[in-house]
């Protein structure tokens, strides 16, 4: 693949002939219509003073207009930063201040929601689902490289945000390698685009990949109600579903209840969390597609490994992509003995660091190598078996939750002395957040009241599903809370 190749050039080459590009809200958009909208956006960006290295922060649902906006930003040698509108004004404000975009583009439905962000020195404009950008004046921004395609934030409401700048070549090489390994017949498929675009799997794989390889996509702005997604799959003729285990539970449940059987589904790709064997069987039975599991991180654009078309060993997420070099190290960074250790990777799809965060970059990136924070086993054929997430990351419905985020909110309650949050597995929903709380002396409260406190300050998927009041927490000799022990107690039946 030629150096400095850009997404907008690849897209233009694949869609030079007029044909259907995206199904949305019951109608097909042609490539010509999407390109025309992109050119209108380019005109508005030029008039606004948007230039090379600038960024557009977005709070938009999946739609053809979101794709057209991305194309326009890339043509101007800028980038996009998709944000989760459900994160709340405080978290969004922190991310916007950190990224310093030239403009914030949001859906009209978020006008009231956006009032809490009005004090930011960044213009706030609203984009209709099928229209071009309105007129605005770009604010001075913290410049990115012209090679930057998108910046995705992996952290949440507290601490130092972690923005991952992915270049055009990061994404193009990642998708190229993944498709060769997993879906050699990708040119015959129609993709379902339903995961939110602030999610790297949703944006890059479901949204950008169809543009990159020249296949149609079926766009849904929201998975729920599940009946709407079922209709979209049928009406748009989706053959390739990219989703996460929690949503697959809902889809399989609805199929079992209604007798619905997708007409054309051939593959069901799952990421973001482990795909348990029972769900894998239900996918094949109820949806009729072949389940494929992948593994990756935002820092890897986002795919590191995926189950190959010819099948992969049971329990593995498939082999590492061909261009990925890997090392297994001990937690202290020294070489691991044997085939198990913390996975470090290097390759053309791996980011070079975090945006505007030199200290965190220095901790996670070393001489081109990236520390995934995951304890894995790798066999002689490069198949990856995930053993444990060293980083304590909690994955709820495919979304990342950092324990420190939840703990910071709980600890801000005047009755709380200390807290600890962990992810515990549930058979249907996957992981949930569970919190353990020590109250200050002489005060009383309930788990329900603490949960309400969290609901007012966190996105719904970060709110603990279970809060246990305790008098102490398990610790090591240095006083650090042993999260593994908390998880083990849950698995051993220490529940309420």
């Amino acid at each position: 693949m030629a150096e400095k190749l850009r997404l907008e050039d690849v897209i233009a080459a694949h869609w030079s002939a007029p044909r259907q590009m995206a199904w949305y809200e019951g109608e097909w958009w042609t490539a010509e219509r999407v390109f025309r909208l992109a050119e209108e956006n380019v005109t508005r960006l030029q008039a606004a003073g948007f230039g090379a290295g600038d960024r557009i922060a977005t709070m938009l649902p999946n739609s053809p207009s979101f794709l057209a906006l991305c194309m326009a930003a890339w043509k101007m040698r800028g980038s996009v930063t998709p944000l989760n509108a459900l994160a709340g004004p405080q978290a969004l404000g922190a991310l916007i201040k950190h990224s310093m975009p030239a403009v914030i583009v949001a859906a009209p439905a978020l006008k009231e929601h956006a009032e809490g962000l009005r004090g930011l020195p960044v213009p706030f404009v609203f984009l209709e689902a099928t229209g071009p950008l309105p007129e605005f004046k770009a604010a001075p921004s913290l410049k990115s490289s012209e090679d930057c395609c998108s910046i995705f934030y992996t952290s949440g409401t507290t601490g130092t945000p972690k923005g991952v700048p992915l270049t055009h070549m990061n994404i193009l090489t990642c998708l190229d390698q993944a498709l060769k390994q997993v879906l050699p017949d990708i040119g015959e498929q129609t993709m379902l685009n339903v995961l939110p675009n602030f999610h790297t799997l949703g944006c890059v794989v479901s949204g950008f990949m169809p543009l990159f390889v020249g296949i149609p996509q079926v766009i849904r702005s929201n998975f729920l109600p599940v009946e709407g997604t079922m209709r979209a799959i049928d009406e748009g003729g989706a053959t390739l579903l990219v989703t996460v285990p929690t949503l697959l539970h809902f889809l399989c449940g609805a199929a079992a209840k209604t007798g619905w059987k997708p007409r054309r589904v051939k593959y069901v790709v799952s990421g973001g969390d482990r795909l348990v064997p029972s769900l894998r069987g239900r996918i094949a039975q109820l949806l009729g597609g072949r389940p494929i599991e992948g593994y990756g991180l935002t820092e890897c654009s986002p795919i590191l490994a995926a189950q190959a078309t010819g099948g992969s060993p049971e329990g593995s997420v498939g082999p590492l992509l061909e261009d990925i070099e890997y090392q297994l190290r001990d937690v202290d960074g020294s070489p691991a003995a044997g085939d198990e250790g913390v996975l470090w990777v290097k390759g053309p799809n791996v980011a070079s660091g975090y945006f505007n965060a030199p200290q965190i970059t220095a901790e996670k990136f070393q001489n081109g190598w990236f520390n995934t924070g995951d304890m894995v086993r790798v066999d002689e054929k490069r198949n990856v078996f995930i053993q444990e997430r060293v980083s304590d990351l909690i994955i709820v419905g495919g979304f990342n939750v950092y324990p420190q985020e939840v703990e910071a909110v709980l600890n801000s309650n005047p009755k709380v002395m200390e807290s600890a949050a962990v992810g515990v597995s549930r058979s249907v929903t996957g992981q949930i957040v569970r919190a353990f709380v020590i109250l200050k002396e002489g005060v009383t409260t309930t788990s329900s009241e603490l949960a309400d406190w969290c609901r007012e300050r966190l996105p719904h998927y970060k709110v603990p599903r279970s809060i246990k009041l305790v008098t102490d927490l398990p610790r090591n000799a240095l006083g650090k809370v042993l999260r593994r022990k908390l998880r083990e107690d849950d698995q051993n039946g220490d529940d309420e």
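Residues 477 and 485 are 14 Å apart (CA to CA). The radius of gyration is 22 Å.
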